[in-house]
Structures are given as structure tokens and as C-alpha cells.
Amino acid sequence: MTDPLFQVEGLCQSFDAPGGLGALRVLDGLELSLEHGEFVLLRGPSGSGKSTLLQLLGGLRRPTEGSLRFEGEELFELTEARRRRLRAGPIGFVFQEMHLLPYLSARANVALALGRTPRREALQRADEVLGSLGLNERRMHRPGQLSAGERQRVAVARALVREPRVILADEPTGSLDPENAAQVLGLLGDYHSAGGTVLMVTHASELAMQSHTRELHLCNGRV
Questions:
Q1: Do residues 207 and 42 lie in contact, with contact meaning Cβ atoms separated by under 8 Å?
Q2: Which of 81, 59, 137 is nearest to 105 (CA)?
Q3: Is 124 part of any domain?
Q4: Domain-embedded: residue 167
Q5: Does residue 130 belong to any structural domain of this protein?
Q6: By the 8 A CB rule, do 221 and 50 touch?
Q7: What pLDDT, in 10s, does the model give residues 144-168?
Q8: 106 in a structural domain
């Protein structure tokens, strides 16, 4: 029997509350299973811990309590170097803020995600992915020369170029107009149709993703 992609049990995350008011528990005994090939939408009010959950799943933050397994391995029993390799391979991220380097071209931003891949090969793969997303003519432009929708497509290309098994997407359409949002959602839908797994945080109740398999709501620290 194949292990779930992610298996979360009793997950808790607390932060120090401002003003010395003690600990603020954002996630409280959360249980979650994400299977291979799913497209899951995660909704919830601001401050409910959606972004925190994605950071935990990506190994960017250590939980206060609980178990978090990726393909059967306890994520925080792995070394930090091993978690970095997971983020550089099977786990991809797409953020609302995009985090593109402003002094690099679109192709260089995408190629950078390939790490130690030889430069010529990395640039070639970046060009292929950007071309498939309709950005061939914009690949030499820096982020400041691109529209918001184009920048987000570059951010998606940066995640896709490593051929990850899962993409964790944190409000990837939050700053986009409806047309550009639809394009980005279409790219994630295509990735899912090709066998990829997506967990996407979104506030937008009007998003009708025909390809999504489940919708989860995070409230009071639990799904």
C-alpha cells in the first residue's frame, strides 16, 4: 500500500503572543492526509494558520508538537540538508509574493531553481518551461518589466522546472485580476492533469476549479 504524500497527525504550532501575553496556538491538533494526485483547496479566515501549515509541510518551520510525514518519512527527523533537498526536488512552492530576484531575467530566475545543474542545461530547461507557459518572448525581461500575471507565471515556471511531485501554492492568484488568475489556475490544473499533486491556499470563494478533488476549511486550528 502506498504511503500518502503527506500524513499529518496531532500537529500543533504556537507562537509567542505580542505584549508578553503567553503563547498563541495557531494550529491545534490538526489531522490531514494528502494523497498522490490530489488537487486540494485549503480555505479559512485570515490568521487561521493556512500559510503556517504550508511552511510546516515544506519543512520551513518546525512544529511545536505532532507528527508530519512525507511519503512515510518523519519530516523533522531528517537533517536540514535532507529537507533542503526535498524543497529543491519533490516539493515545489508558489507564493503570492513570487519572490523573484529583481536583477535577474525571467529565464535566470527559473534556471536558478535547478541548483547545481550545468548552466547551459539549466537555461535550456528554463526556456522550455517558459515557452510552454507563453513567456518565450518575455524570458529575457527582468521582473520589473513584466506584468503581475507574467511574474506569477514565471513563479509557476520556477516551481515546475524541477518537476516536483507536489506544489504547495499560497494564494497564487491573490494579487491578480480575474484573467491572469484564470491563467495561473489553468497552469496548476495542467500540472495536476499530468499527475502532479497540488495543495492550494485560497481566499477566493468564486474560484471554481473543476479539477480539484477536495476542499478543506481551516478553523480554530483544525481542518
A1: no
A2: 137
A3: yes
A4: no
A5: yes
A6: no
A7: 999 988 998 899 999 999 989 999 9
A8: yes
The pTM assigned to this predicted structure is 0.89
Count of domains observed in the chain = 1
- For the chain, give the longest Cα–Cα distance: 54
CB 63 within 8 A of CB 28: no
Alpha carbon distance 108, 210 (integer Å)? 33
pLDDT tens readout for residues 47-62 = 788 989 999 999 999 9
The cell numbers describing 134, all together, are 507563453
Say how far apart CA 26 and CA 73 lie, in whole Å.
24
CA–CA separation, 19 vs 26, rounded Å?
Answer: 17
Question: From CA 204, how far away is CA 215, in angstroms rounded?
Answer: 12
C-alpha cell at 33: 492526509
Domain of residue 155 covers: 101-162
Residue 49 burial by Cβ neighbours in a 10 Å radius (0-12, 13-18, 19+): buried
Query: Residues with Cβ < 8 Å from 108, sequence gap 6 or more?
Result: 101, 123, 126
When comparing pLDDT for 173 and 65, which is higher? 65
C-alpha cell at 198: 497540488
